[in-house]
Fold this protein.
Amino acid sequence: MEKRTAFVKDWGAVLRVNKGRIECSVKGQVKWSLSPAEVSSIIFLVTSSLSTEVIRLANDFGIELVFFYKGEPISKVVHANYVGSMKLWLKQAREARKNPVKYARQFIYGKMHNQWVTVHYYEKKYSLDLKGDELTQLSKEVLTADEVMQKEAQGAKIYWRAVKRVIPSTLGFKGRRKMTQNEENLDLLNKALNIGYGMLRKEVWGAVISAGLNPYVGFLHKYRAGRISLVFDLMEEFRSPFVDRPLIGLARENPEALKDLKKVYSTFLFDSDVIYTQARRLANSLLQGEEYRPFMAK
């Protein structure tokens, strides 16, 4: 049975044990009630209370308790008799050292496929030739560690050139520009992309922590002190469907809306189930040797 991730999203929620089940309630109203055997993680996104009995059950059943503050993970309970995280961390570090391309290739394959889905949508809708098929061809050619980075760079050129063609030229978008110290000099779309990727980073970071993975040990992005390399790895699959595509749609419909930060922030609706599932799949792949399959948008 695939275990579930439970979220505590309501302010003032209370978690307690009732008849052997973990129960989450707000002002006396039960929000959810789950058997501890069917839960892998409980994610606390807001201020809440929990009983020591919940902590005891979490320890007995190996349930991860992860706490967030302002959208970022701040703490995770390490259980006294549960060593799952350490076992996973050791396997993650071993794979990252010996065979990083195995996972890096899958992250980039998923990224290019999802970029192709975005580009192909506009090719079909407006009968344009945006070279979208070259993205899928590049993703299939990746075999070595060096090729991963080369193909990703080639794919990015094709992808952002296509994006430039489908958004209004009045936005002044000349290509993807990452966050810089001179953020005010960026065009509106790049500013909005940086906001979206920042929000996505928090979401993926939480998923990585909840799955028991070490956020600092990556496969595509090399280790660097303080850098959450694995989070940046896993983000690649989600950038186009969850950030780029809604922003491209907004830019086409109402370019002036990109000046409204409130509107930009409200544009992103991340599918937490998908993101947390991918993190769990990666953990299972490392622990059990299963093939890791990237998220493929439709």
